[in-house]
Amino acid sequence: MNYIYDILLNFNTSLYDFYEWNDNDDITHIRKMPVFKVNTQMIEDIKHHKIEVESKFLNKIKSKTEMFQKKSIKQIEYACLFTNGKECIAVLLQANMITLKSRLLLDEEEDVLDMSATMEEIGISYKKIGNIFYCPFQTRKESEMKKYIQKELSKITDDGLEYLYYECFNERPGEGISLKCKIKEKLTYDFDNTAKKLYDFFKLLRTKK
Question: Is 145 buried (19+), middle (13-18) or exposed (0-12) by CB count in 10 A?
Answer without folding.
Answer: middle
